[in-house]
Amino acid sequence: MKITYVHHSAFLADLWSAALLFDYTQGRLPDLDTNKPLFVFASHRHGDHYSDKIFDLGNGPREVHYVLSDDISRKKIGEEQSRHISFVKPGETLTLTYGTEGSLALEITTFKSTDEGVAFLIKVDGTVIYHAGDLNNWRWEGEPEEWNRNMAKNYSVEVDKLAGEKIDAAFLPLDPRQEENFYLGFDEFMRKAEVVHAFPMHCWDDYSVIERLKSMEVSIPYRDRIAMIERDGESFVLEQEPQIHE
């Protein structure tokens, strides 16, 4: 499996039988085998996670499927494009078949975001991939303490559903705007799910937060599993599982 960090919260996962593109709004996409189907996911309607330019990817010979959060407006989506779209709500499980006579399947489970839309858990080719979208513990200085407590509680409710789940690649927010609270959601997820490779996102081009987390004592159990992203377009080939500390 090859993972390419495209921009902000956009990642491309190139697997054996299909390619998965998450929350694409801008940035150069690597060349892909046009004989391999492309599944395009959009977690919610925010402009840093969704752009209608994703429908340009359907112009050509490649088989393209779209999986969009149902908070995304249908107004600018044409009839032809609609035939290739599955709209999803939180708490749903969807199976999409593809390949010769539908011989292959991609299983999608959605989770309720603590902001807008959904997070995705995808099982395909014997691989499990998670994209958080804006599901995070968005604790902010200046918000009432009760608001922050409810935020943490709502986040835990969703993450607890993934407790013990082995995830080969997880794309998780690590937002420097949260200041000293920037790591809370990331840390909780890594402690509850069995993540093999973790990819920080939503960093607003400030990749120093990745090294900042890796240098903190709290990350000792999982710091070796965090990818050190430094630029748009960076790729990672995942072949062997790194050591998981007990």
UniProtKB/TrEMBL annotation:
> Entry's SUPFAM superfamilies?
Metallo-hydrolase/oxidoreductase
Give the superkingdom in one word. Answer: Bacteria
Q: Entry's Gene3D superfamilies? A: Ribonuclease Z/Hydroxyacylglutathione hydrolase-like
User: PANTHER family this protein is in?
Assistant: MBL FOLD METALLO-HYDROLASE, METAL DEPENDENT HYDROLASE
Give the protein's recorded name.
MBL fold metallo-hydrolase
